[in-house]
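Quarterly update from the structural biology core.
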Amino acid sequence: MEKKHLTQVIEKYHLNGLVESVTWNSTKTNGLTVNFVTSTKDCAGSIITSKDLELGDSNISIYSTSQFNKILSIVDSFLTIEVVKGKQNIPYLLNIKDNDFDLTYHLSSEDLIPTVPTINEPKEFSCDFEIDEDFIKNFIKAHGALDKPDRFTIECKVEDEEQYVEFCVGDSASYANKIKLRQPAKFLLGFTEIPFSANIFKEIIVANKTAKSKIQVLEQGLMKLTFTEDDVTSTYFMVKLSD
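Predicted structure, tokenized:
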């Protein structure tokens, strides 16, 4: 196995430490699916790859993705992973090998992995748009310039018959410093300011900075982000923050 195929999946759900405990659902025919939810419960989603990662038919529960990443970081770009199963055919250990190392990683019980909520996705969203690498760079710059604020708002606007969404990065208080970005969008009625987590949004777009994007927002406070890259489809649902 090429390590980069596995690390690509991990990066997209781990979100720089916002998600730690997950179960990898692997099948020989359909690849790998990872469903996840952040510890703050305001973002959930799934990462799906059709690529065969040679893990067989297994539900592999990783309690600490950060610890697993440290182990994975020392192995070569090509490795083998053996899924060791015990009673009732339940995986309990991964044997990871390359030319230099022979490593073991003990798996968690599925009972210790947070339950991922079911998202009631609407048939239609209020607004949809795409983002590119330039937007991602600018959002990261804005977030850093304001000392990493907790939130941003998104609002539909029209100027000279051009529809767009306006991102306002910064605290909601009237006296707080803010930076605004805009992105072309499509909508019918649109919506006024909806607050979302700036940190979660930033980590999502960083993990998918080279992927093709589609973002949809529901006026009631739900954002769906879909990214496709190589053989990987990443889907995230963010819920609005309390006012």
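The mean pLDDT is 94.
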